[in-house]
Amino acid sequence: TEAEWEYMARAGTTTDYTTGNTITPEHANYNGDPHGVQKDENLNRNKTMPVGSFPPNKFGIFDVEGNVREYTQDCWHDDFVGAPTDGTAWIEDGNCNKRVAKSGAWGGTKDEMRTSSRGWLEVTRTSVSYGFRIARSIE
């Protein structure tokens, strides 16, 4: 869910990124070139990278920021009015043709990498820069 994703991503922090209030291409796979010219592969690799290519967050989870924009289970709502408060997916009364998307992809900007950043992706659309994170419940 969106709430679970943000809890996992923040890993107990309150900063903009898992790395603090700044992020660099050494910390995540995103377009770190401020001019967007994408010529320096150290700033923008122009592709997904293998899991574990960058340091994990404080929970030991890799690739929280960058690599691919991640679908969540939640249907899209423009705001949080009426959202569940128990971490369950919000699938009522929203646009379920769109799902909440978290993080940013390898071609994304620094702002899209913020753990609080959210957007939506259409469920029928595919891209090499979209993905999802597999999660399992633990008793």
How is the largest sheet built, in terms of strand order? 3-2-1-4
Radius of gyration: 15 Å
- Average of per-residue pLDDT values: 90
Total strands: the figure is 4
- State the order of secondary-structure elements, H for helix, E for strand: HEEEE
Spatial shape: globular
Total helical elements? 1
State the end-to-end distance.
17 Å
Uncertain runs: none
> What percent of residues adopt helix (DSSP H or I)?
under 10%
User: How large a portion of the residues is in β-strands, by DSSP E?
Assistant: 15-25%
Taking the sheet with the most strands, its summary is: 4 strands, mixed
Helical/strand content category: mainly beta
What labels describe this entry?
1 helix; mainly beta; 139 residues; 6% helix; 4-stranded mixed beta sheet; single chain; globular
